[in-house]
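Contributing new complexes? Match this layout with adenosine-5'-triphosphate.
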Amino acid sequence: MNYSSTFIPTLREVPADAVIASHRLMFRAGMLRKLANGLFAYLPLGFRSFRKVERIIREEMDAIGALEIKPTVVVPGEIWKESGRWDAMGDEMLRAKNRLGGDFVISPTAEEAFTAIVRDELSSYRQLPLTLYQINTKYRDEIRPRYGVMRGREFVMKDAYSWNRDEESLDKVYRAMGGAYRRIFKRCGLTVISVKADSGAMGGSGSEEFMVESEIGDNTLILCKCCDYAANVEKAGCKPDFSPRPSPGFAGSAAAETPPYEKIDTPEVKTIEELCAFIKNSDGSSAGTREFIKTLIYRALNVEIDLSAAPGCAKLERKNPAGEAPQSKGAAVYPEAFFAVAIRGDLDVNEVKLAAALKAGEVGLASDSDVVRLTGAPVGFAGPVGLVSLPVILDHSVTGMSDAITGALAKDLHYRHVAYGRDFEGWMIEDLRTVKAGDRCPLCGGELYEKKGNELGHIFKLGYKYTRSMNVSYLDENGKTCIPTMGSYGIGLDRTLASVIEEHHDDSGIVWPVSLAPYHVIIIPVKYDGAAKAASDKLTAELERAGIEVLLDDRGERPGVKFNDADLLGIPWRVVIGDKGLSQSSPQVELKRRSEKENRMIALDKAAAELAGKIKEELAELDG
Ligand code: ATP
Ligand code: MG
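Output block (do not edit by hand):
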């Protein structure tokens, strides 16, 4: 391709909102332009690299037996109502009405569409397992699109879905997907960290996120200094830093030495910090936050766990996702329920873990008026002792406390000498703390540390969430009606491409891995005429015949300008052809790798074979 015939509008200026390298470089190299906030157009150079990401993903999906289909981007709102996500998705989902007043959705993801397609065709166990995928446009009305295509509103995702007879078959697909993802990222030249993740609003268990390290990452990763434990902070666990003892056996041991609990007046003190300063130990020192039991009241929506025997929940109403009275236990949810969560004073509740424990769609702190109604005291005085109006959930840390201070369910009053197992119990005991750097690895006890990361891909086992709510079934070999289990597997193409640039650039521009480079070679004649023109045209033709993609810089620009552009565009190999080299007894051209400083002269007549050989070797190495 001749440079002058393509459309590569490079920029000297950096767009004002471009704060990360990939955003700056995609604009400066003429790969991308912005149409509106979160909406980007790929120009020819950018689209070439984008298509290469797409090709790699497609090859790896095909290789594990996933079948590509092309559903629509605009889908009927009906199927989202069936799954219950018409309401659950909130404002991130863009909705539209057609001229007849029908509800439509611009797909933010496609569990519903794929499930609707499969349910009509699935009849026999012989059709399973089935894995379908698409590489298609998604729209999410992100509240704050940023960092260019890293977080756009419209983007392209490869999303795959599998239907399986049982857990074992699902696990097989899940693991094959994990393997395919690792190969995809390797072929793109990316270093990824795979972490156990929470499966969020999608539901189900078994989930892995593929992250790249990034200063601007939206995710916090918890990693171990001693072993390969890696988890999203949303799900990270840690070794308890106390010895948990099962209740009520605990009451007989450490608590035996604790005096009976008693009330203390704590006028005008509300926060844990104020309390610490206020309450003095017998030696006159202030109490530490670790001596407190912090009790928070949470409101949870769409709770799936059974609350029929939970304190204060006997009269709670239960509905199925379509808002009707429940037919089967599994599909029904409590639209709203309240819980008290008790945790050691120096720790924070991880709301994602809490939501997962309750199988809730959403959890958040209850309003002040709800706190007063449920605990009989203003905010700041809740505690687990004598709390019967709602279920009390204990974090593991509380089960290690035998002489604690806690709210006394009355204004300006606390209890001290409170012992777990003696003075209170929990309705549920769970690991709910937010893990921090410095905590201990749950696997090996080593020290944990934090890194920021960006999610490129996500695989998870959905279970029966969609197949149940959308009535998918098949007949097994005995003619029995069965419901398949599902998995869902996504990769963002735009974010992957931007992340490659984040990992592969320098001060002068992009340094493409050969697998994604828009062209493998850029040929720069010092001047595009005479012998240099003839040699450039000939080398281009030879390389192209060998399957190598060449950009021939035929512009009438000064060599310095062409060199700078070549560096900015990041083409892996540069060949400079000038009269001086050509006039030697055996004509020479200058060869330089974008990633290296040095260049060297090679014989013109060997250049095509040598370059083609090297490029194919590099490609094979990335693919291998
Ligand atoms: P995030 O937490 O970053 O919003 P997500 O958990 O919402 O991601 P998924 O629903 O798992 O993402 O989507 C799968 C993939 O789609 C992500 O791993 C990411 O690569 C890509 N993706 C999601 N949202 C965007 C976006 N706004 N812009 C670009 N890519 C996106
Ligand atoms: Mg998101």
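Reviewers usually confirm one structural detail per submission. For this one: DSSP finds 16 helices and 31 strands in the chain.
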